[in-house]
Design brief:
Two copies of one chain form a homodimer. Chain A has helices at about 45-50, 55-60, 75-80, 90-95, 120-130, 145-155, 165-170, 175-180, 195-205, 210-225, 235-255, 270-285, 305, 350-355, 370-380, 390-405, 425-430, 445-450, and strands at about 10, 20, 70, 85-90, 100-105, 135-140, 160-165, 185-190, 230, 265, 295-300, 310-315, 325-330, 360-365, 410-415. Chain A is of the alpha/beta class and about 450 residues long. Chain A has two domains: about 10-20 and about 85-115 and about 240-430, Rossmann fold; about 120-230, Rossmann fold (3-Layer(aba) Sandwich). Chain A has a seven-stranded mixed sheet with strand order 1-4-5-15-10-11-14, sandwiched between helices. A four-stranded parallel sheet of chain A has the order 8-7-6-9, with helices on both faces. In chain A, strands 2-3 form a two-stranded antiparallel ribbon. In chain A, helix 12 links the parallel strand 10 and strand 11 (about 295-300). The relative contact order of chain A is 0.15. At the A-B interface, helix 3, helix 6, helix 8, helix 15 and helix 17 of A face helix 3, helix 6, helix 8, helix 15 and helix 17 of B.
Chain lengths: ~450, ~450
């Protein structure tokens, strides 16, 4: 189909939307390494994991062979409230950059949670409800996951207990009110409501918290109450599974118009957006049916892929969670208080870690001032005010488009625009006032943190 | 077409989108009364108005006969960045209410300005650019119009000078940063940068400002600099013209699926959203081709339609703007500091005023606590966190749907969901904490303000 037939924004029809999630692991020869019991160092069983997660989610977590898992009707109904998300041709950005590259972005911010997190929040809440639980607990960093989960729980009538990283509890009071409007209870972490929280407060008085620490608290609460289970917004295989809806919609839309992306770019914190966006494309690549260049973008202040090590590590600061084999900076690593709250996790999805280790994707890191420059440039021409997290992908998409300008190549670039920045205006204000600086951890800091990895 | 064929969200295809705005006045037998020169009390001429507004906008302002005015290609291109907006069937709300009514809403919040204001902002900025001006000045209340205009100006490379009502400058610092990110200069009003601002500060020290006062300041600046013109986000005929895109898209989508709305509901501050939403439906009603019940909803704290008088009045507190014949509470009326910033204007669109006066539409007023109850109820089932302004329409849509529950009538309700409430979390926080109260002006207060109307 000729280029001028392609709309600015491609919305799938309801009947074109995916009816099943795609389980990327089914096409991986080298499967991601299993989660280990932190006590026995043996792979976790269904029984063990069922103490933390809902049963059906445990099955999804461990399923390495079923390529497609049907999306339950109730979840499809909820998806229809805010999906399909648009696949947008960034005509205005292309013109601004004067690049021959064709830039597309899949925009996941058009819902009240402001990000793609809702795709997995509704799925996890649904299975909790189906299991007859009273509620769920979780942590949230920048608050996107917490907002999403509180929306999903409000819709299904489930209790929602949220531990929010203290830095963001204070920096983003409005996020807190969104969650409260949806009926969630919100606690700043570390808190004195859990054993692990009290321990961390004693060891690091004045800490602004971290995602790893908030995870420890949320897990502790859920483990102690049989009517609750813990849910998580990223890192896990089940989350990547649910987020595959992003990539599936993108691929259906691109196939419909005969568009082949040469480069696919996503920001990577725990990997939920990137893993979801690339899923069907990576599947083709693994099966040898097509080739794509795939780039993970992470902040220079928390560079798990680019400066971490591939090893078993705890997912939380309190070291009560399972061990995962992943690219990690060490569970003691505390990133500087940068402004990309969703990208502050010390580790990375085990699936993406394995794919990166096997050479199926690249990774790069970028500094936040250059990220906000890209964000502002994008906002002014494309209209959307992007989240700091998403703007990492924008930065690299612009860089790739500018390379095309030099070489004259007409590459097609697809990136994930995971969300909006309406709750990040403190960061934008710093940038607007020229007060934003960059922070790159020293080799010594990273080495010190990695030296403390558990021996497996 | 049967009910189950209607998608949750109807998005028009690009080729189905309107290519011309609809000028409702062409179908009105009783035209709205003309704007008067505040000095001579004679109808304003093209020449006089051209000192304040761009020439082509003046022509649109005064055109009472041309039913359709083509949308320039450049504006259509911009519209494609965020339009079509979805027409959503509120299945979840219907189920929650257990009503036989069918509820639809046209959602205009899916753009960074967070509201429908962008539809007219880009049009007004485009004509300013076309005329070779350096920039535009305006006022903004809740900041939606300011955000929209700064986006439009950033896109076109125009200067944007904004006077923002002081109450909202302080209550919504993040709005300010959105505007700054888009490159606008933002001044809290009343300010000492204008004569009228200094006068108001002297007379009302400590005032939190009003839209009427910010208008005076913005007009003064533009009148004194020939490279600038004044633009306005509501009230004017030209704005209703541009906003007709809301109603046109709604009507095309509803006609496509054979849906006939029995009741059409919109919030009304200056009338931009309501006038745009109802335009093509009201046109049919005026031509006797179809009938619709049309309801304007205003806050009980600023009830122009329901408790104002139909008379000539100033549009601004400083009394330097043209006189308009409209439903007004008097330009000296200062509404209480309620939380629907977009609905604090003392007057109303002249077009809507005439239509209301002639009995073609109804009006009702609602109190803010009941508005936030509706907002929360809507958010929890429909996902979207609505703006306080939009929630006025939600309140009445829910009330109408509940009436249908009593009577068993299967009415079809359409309401305008003008925007999102991400920048209104201070208000939501008050509501969440049970600290929100209602304020209804006394008959004496309104009578005192109306007594000061100019004699025309």
């Amino acid at each position: 189909m000729s280029d001028n037939k392609i709309p600015y924004k491609i919305y799938l029809e309801e009947e074109e939307m995916p009816k099943a999630w795609y389980n990327l692991r089914a096409d991986m020869k080298n499967k991601p390494a299993p989660l280990l019991n932190p006590g026995t160092l043996q792979p976790l069983t269904v029984e063990e994991l069922s103490g933390i997660f809902c049963r059906e989610l445990v099955e999804q977590e461990l399923d390495e062979t079923t390529p497609f898992i049907p999306i339950p009707d109730e979840i499809l109904s909820f998806y229809r409230m805010y999906r399909p998300s648009p696949l947008v041709r960034a005509y205005c950005l292309e013109e601004k950059l004067q690049t021959p590259a064709k830039i597309y972005y899949k925009f996941e911010g058009n819902n009240t949670s402001g990000s793609h997190k809702l795709n997995s929040a509704i799925a996890q809440a649904y299975y909790a409800k189906k299991q007859g639980l009273k509620g769920v607990t979780t942590e949230t960093g920048a608050g996107q996951w917490g907002s999403a989960l509180s929306m999903a729980c409000a819709y299904l009538g489930l209790d929602c207990k949220l531990y929010i990283v203290k830095l963001y509890y204070e920096q983003k009071p409005f996020r807190r009110e969104v969650m409260r409007t949806y009926g969630a209870s919100v606690v700043p972490s570390p808190s004195d409501t859990t054993e692990v929280g009290r321990k961390i407060l004693a060891e690091h008085p004045g800490t602004t918290g971290s995602l790893g620490c908030a995870i420890s608290e949320a897990v502790e609460v859920s483990v102690k109450d049989p009517d609750y289970r813990y849910v998580l917004g990223s890192v896990l295989n089940q989350v990547l599974l649910h987020q595959s809806v992003i990539g599936l919609e993108s691929k259906i839309a691109m196939d419909k118009y005969g568009i082949h992306p040469d480069v696919i770019i996503g920001c990577a914190g725990g990997g939920s957006n990137l893993g979801g966006l690339i899923a069907p494309f990576m599947g083709e690549k693994l099966r040898g049916e097509a080739d794509y260049r795939i780039i993970a973008v992470e902040p220079a202040s928390c560079p798990s892929f680019t400066r971490g090590t591939y090893a078993y590590d705890f997912c939380d600061t309190g070291k009560i969670c399972p061990l995962a084999k992943m690219y990690t900076l060490g569970s003691d690593f505390i990133p500087s208080p940068n402004h990309a709250g969703g990208l502050r996790f010390h580790g990375m999805s085990t699936t993406l870690s394995q794919l990166y280790h096997d050479g199926f994707m690249e990774a790069t890191s970028v500094e936040q001032t250059s990220v906000f420059e890209a964000a502002e440039q994008f906002a002014r021409v494309e209209g959307i005010l992007p989240a700091p997290e998403s703007s990492h992908a924008i930065r690299v998409a612009i860089d790739e488009a500018l390379k095309c300008k030099e070489t004259g190549e007409e590459k097609t670039i697809l990136f994930g625009l995971t969300g909006t920045g309406y709750f990040d205006m403190v960061a934008y204000e710093k940038f607007n006032n020229g007060e934003m600086s960059d922070y790159i951890p020293s080799d010594e800091d990273i080495a010190a943190s990695i030296a403390k990895l558990p021996t497996v």
